[in-house]
Design goal:
GO molecular function: FMN binding; oxidoreductase activity, acting on the CH-NH group of donors, NAD or NADP as acceptor
Largest sheet: 7 strands, antiparallel
Oligomer: single chain
Strand order of the largest sheet: 3-2-6-9-10-5-4
CATH class of the largest domain: Mainly Beta
Cofactor: FMN
Organism: Ignavibacterium album (strain DSM 19864 / JCM 16511 / NBRC 101810 / Mat9-16)
Number of domains: 2
Pfam family, one: Flavin_Reduct
Keywords: Flavoprotein, FMN
Length: 225
């Protein structure tokens, strides 16, 4: 990086460093990318499955999948600018469907490998030794080795003008989960089947629940469920 970490530490609080917007913009590209990507905390780890209009399957790792709404059931994700070929985005726009597949500790290395820049006529399923599977509802491949799978229909997109990223919104058409992860109140225990998390661009984490708490109300202390 062009800016010394020691400079940031000197300007910060005791035992800490203060890094300003100006500092961040002076970082070398890779350092800046790693730094900013680490700041938002632990993120969901998912493989997005799509298929081209020619029938070639595609698989890509994403850490930007988020809940959008429950009625109707919506889920979203950020796609990087389309200034260079983005096979996932192109396939979603062409076919109207995509799948979201939770990554577990048995497949995290294969999942990470899908981030390599393969040509459009190459399937990441083949290159990364993962298995595509289909249902009658979704015109996109699921990952057989994933334990929690979500099938979506593309409904809308929004351009983030500041950096030309695209926010994709999909409606959930089907969910495939193990029988023992759905609780009586609708909570899906994603930790039970081994879903993992991502921090930064390349750090993978298992999780350990602290507790589930009751619905928060004014002047009432939450209790553990």
């Amino acid at each position: 990086m062009r800016l010394s970490v020691a400079v940031c530490r000197k300007e910060g609080l005791p035992e800490n460093m203060k890094i300003t917007n100006e500092n961040i913009l002076q970082f070398e590209k890779l350092f800046r990318t790693n730094f900013v990507n680490s700041l938002s905390g632990f993120k969901s780890a998912n493989l997005i499955g799509t298929i081209s209009k020619e029938g070639k399957t595609n698989l890509a790792i994403f850490s930007s999948v988020i809940h959008v709404g429950a009625n109707p059931p919506l889920i979203g994700m950020l796609v990087r600018p389309a200034s260079v070929p983005r096979h996932t985005y192109e396939n979603i726009k062409d076919t109207g469907y995509f799948t979201i597949n939770h990554i577990n500790k048995e497949i995290y290395k294969q999942a990470h490998q899908t981030s390599a820049r393969y040509d459009k006529d190459v399937s990441e399923f083949d290159e990364c030794e993962l298995t595509p599977e289909f249902t009658n509802t979704i015109k996109a491949p699921y990952v057989k080795e994933s334990n929690i799978k979500i099938g979506c229909r593309f409904v809308e997109e929004h351009l983030i003008k500041t950096n030309d990223t695209i926010f994709i919104v999909g409606e959930i058409l089907e969910v495939i989960i193990p029988d023992d992860v759905l609780t009586n109140d609708g909570y899906v225990d994603i930790e039970k089947p081994g879903t993992i998390a991502i921090s930064g661009l390349d750090s993978y984490h298992e999780t350990k629940r602290i507790a589930r708490l009751t619905y928060a109300k004014p002047r009432t202390k939450a209790k553990e469920l």
